Every structure is written in C-alpha cells, then in structure tokens.
Amino acid sequence: xxxxxxxxxxxxxxxxxxxxxxxxxxxxxxxxxxxxxxxxxxxxxxxxxxxxxxxxxxxxxxxxxxxxxxxxxxxxxxxxxxxxxxxxxxxxxxxxxxxxxxxxxxxxxxxxxxxxxxxxxxxxxxxxxxxxxxxxxxxxxxxxxxxxxxxxxxxxxxxxxxxxxxxxxxxxxxxxxxxxxxxxxxxxxxxxxxxxxxxxxxxxxxxxxxxxxxxxxxxxxxxxxxxxxxxxxxxxxxxxxx
Amino acid sequence: xxxxxxxxxxxxxxxxxxxxxxxxxxxxxxxxxxxxxxxxxxxxxxxxxxxxxxxxxxxxxxxxxxxxxxxxxxxxxxxxxxxxxxxxxxxxxxxxxxxxxxxxxxxxxxxxxxxxxxxxxxxxxxxxxxxxxxxxxxxxxxxxxxxxxxxxxxxxxxxxxxxxxxxxxxxxxxxxxxxxxxxxxxxxxxxxxxxxxxxxxxxxxxxxxxxxxxxxxxxxxxxxxxxxxxxxxxxxxxxxxx
DNA sequence: CGCAGCTTTGAGAATCCTCAACTATTGTGG
DNA sequence: CCACAATAGTTGAGGATTCTCAAAGCTGCG
Lengths: 242, 242
What we know:
Two copies of one chain form a homodimer.
Chain A: H1 6-13, E1 16-17, H2 20-27, E2 33-36, E3 41-43, E4 51-57, E5 60-65, E6 71-77, E7 96-99, E8 103-109, H3 110-119, H4 121-147, H5 150-169, E9 175-177, H6 182-189, H7 193-205, E10 209-212, E11 215-218, H8 221-228, E12 240-241
Parallel strand pairs in A: 1-12
Antiparallel strand pairs in A: 2-8, 3-7, 4-8, 5-6, 5-7, 9-11, 10-11
Chain A binds a DNA duplex through helix 7.
C-alpha cells in the first residue's frame, strides 16, 4: 500500500489545517510514478493534460517559451511540490514544465483531485491556497528582478531555496544541493551565464557562500539576507485554518 | 435590486462556463460599495481581511513593499477584476493593494464567496481558475522583465492592457485610458521614471503610439506586438468547461 | 498668477551584455 | 584506467542599456 501523495500532504499541511478525513481522502489517491531524464519536457505549451506532476525526486522547473525557443524559468519545484497544480483547473498549459535534473514524478489524475476537492471543500481551499503560495512567490520574484541587481537576485534565490528545502527536508539547511548548471540558473535569474558566474565568484570571494559541485553552502546567512533584503513572509508557511 | 457581482460574473464567464444556478448564486451575493481616493491603500501587508476587493471603477494595483518603503507593482486590476481574490483562501495579506486612481470598490465578503464555492464546486473551480489567470499573467511578466529591455516591457504592457480593457469593455480598443503617472508606471515596468519617459518618447517618435493626457492610442498595433513578441494565449481568455 | 506635481532633457557612471578564447569537469568507449 | 569528447565554468575587453543626479519645461488648479 504505497501512498503517492504522502509527501504532498506534508506540503499542504505546512499551509492548511486538515481534518483526519480530509487527510485520508488525499492519501487514498493513487498515481503512477514515472522517471524522466534531465531536460525532458513533462508538459509543453498547448498540451491538454489530465494529471498533475507531483515531484518525488529531482528538480522541476516551469518556464515561459518565447517565439524562437528561448526560455525563461518562472518557478522551481522541489520534492513534495505539485509542479503544475494549476492544470487541475486549467488543463491546457500555456507554459512548459521541464525536468531540470533526472527526476521521479507522480502523475496525479486531475479527476481524483477534483473529486476530493468537491467532496471536501476544505481540501479545495487548501489546494487553492497552494497555488496562491506559488503566486505569492512569483509576485515577490517580480519585485526582485525588476528592482534589484543580479547579486541581490542570486542572494534572494539562495535564501528562498534554503528555506524551502529546509521546510521540505526539516531544519533550515545552510548546505543544500542546487543541482543546476549556470545555464539553467541564468534562465531563472535573468542574467547571462557569464555575468552570473562573475557574481557567484564575487559572493564566494566575499566569503558569503561556497560552491562545490553544485552544492551550495551559505557561510554568512545574515549578510546574504541583507543583500537580498529577504523576508520569508511571502512563502506563506504559517498554516491557515480551513 | 442591485447586483454587485454582475460585472465580475462577466469576468468569470470569460474563462469558465457556469450553469444558471451557479450564475444566480454569484449574483445573489451582496457587497457594500466604497469609494477611495488615489493612493489609498485598500489592504496593507499583515492585514487580516474578511472581504475581497472587486473593482467597479478606477485602477487598482498590487505591490510588494520593501524594507524602506519602496514599492514594486506586480499586478494591475481594471473594472470587473477581483483585485485580491487570493484573500478568500489566504486572508492575511503579504502585499499591498492600492488605489492607483480614485476608485469605487465592492467589498465582497469572503464568507459569501466561500459558501457559494463549497456549495457549487463549479464556482470554486472557476474562482480558482481566476487566480490562475492572475498567476499566468505574472509568470509571463517575469519572463518579460527578466529578459527584455524597457521598450519591450512597455510594449508588452500596452498590448496586454489594451486586450484586457477590450475584453472588459467590448472590442479590442486601440485607444484606452492608462491613467497612471510615469512614477506609477515605472513601478510596474521596473525602470526609472527618467528612462521610462525616454522610451515612451521613442515610441511616439517612431509613430507607434501617441499619448495625450494619460490616454494612449496605439497607431501601429502590429509593430507594438512585434516589439513585445506578444501572444495573448497566457491571458486564458478561452472559456474552459467546468 | 503662482505653486505643486509631473514630464522632459542632459551628462557621467554603474550594471550588464556580447563575443571570444581559455580552463576545468564530467562522461564515454576502448 | 586512460584518452578523448562534450559539457560546463572562467576570464578579458569593448559596447549597450539603464541608473543617478540635477536642472529646466509643462500642466492643472487654487
């Protein structure tokens, strides 16, 4: 008796308070586990899906695709995240969901999620809330990239990532995997790989972080937060009663 | 018998197909109409609201506030938009909702919306879908500001605005009000007022738009769309069956 | 008329990009 | 385990975009 949504339930419960019944209804949902190689597109623009992608292992990104094919990543999803929960309400994708690393994905049927959401309005609200957390992160990120330089953007990304990884894995990690190439990070941060590399170097030189084979260690958390003017409020990590 | 949500119903029905019953349930909701002066904050970070702000008249913005008080606008809301529909699921705001111009707002009780949503799952899905459209706009905007210059950002904003105004008011308008100061626009576009002014001038000089007392006329829609690489797909304006 | 807020213009500086070459790391087949 | 190829990261230099600071025109309104 495997319970595909076990990890996602943790995620949901970091933001919503559920009853035993609601919890049980989510855990009862079954979903096939699939594996994908890095760079594989899980969902492409125009696709009409009937399942949502729950990340079990690896890193998944959401990106906008421009005419010409260049991409810009607008969300990062870590294990426990439902990468395109949106698709439950809007099955036709306008963006790309991509495997940024090798990953394992539960394909959770929309049907099942909708059924649980309509039977238990509290779950519906919790799922809605989850997409709002995603929106809140985007809103914050818009303000960061439209007003801050690359240094602050990277700092903000690292602060956010370390907290999100911490919430998912337990404990605020100062060392965490960030298994993305500079190329991929540049698509997140909105800078060229060259400039990104320079700024990373300057952060290392300043003794604020170290990087080793795509593993990041934050040496000076306070200064990193100061550079980013980071305030974690927007991550909506206080559970709200349903 | 006034029906505060009449206009919002149009908005919802541009994205979702509702039954007569569901339509009636939304129209039956009552809400007080309030007026606010430009620059008034309707909701501030940390506020716990029990109503959502339905824009009846005027322009409303959502902004992130940095330590120090500087703001960055991450969404514009026009008449017919529910400015902080999010608050139905997440009552505690992490951002500011501001009156960008003098405006009239229906304060729609969360209670009523939640009740309708839980009684009619189709309405719940439609509301959820509405916040996803908001998210889709943000995702697109992230890609625009992280990869395009100010010229393209402005072009994109104008394209989007003209379509959204058109959908709300009927017919794709090539002339529309954009009653924002350069100061306010710069907080949307992520540029200084100085630079924004220069680029606007260059767009005027190129014969692409004209501006007259905060009224914009698009003279060359094709070229504007080309500059912005605009594709309206992300606005999610095809109704999805519930 | 005169003030207050908004917009335009100018000039120098900072950030970031582009192109290009070079080094380091990772992966693969022998 | 090595050699080699492919991918990823670093460094340098010149140029484009955008910012900052500062001052001069506008516009609307009391």
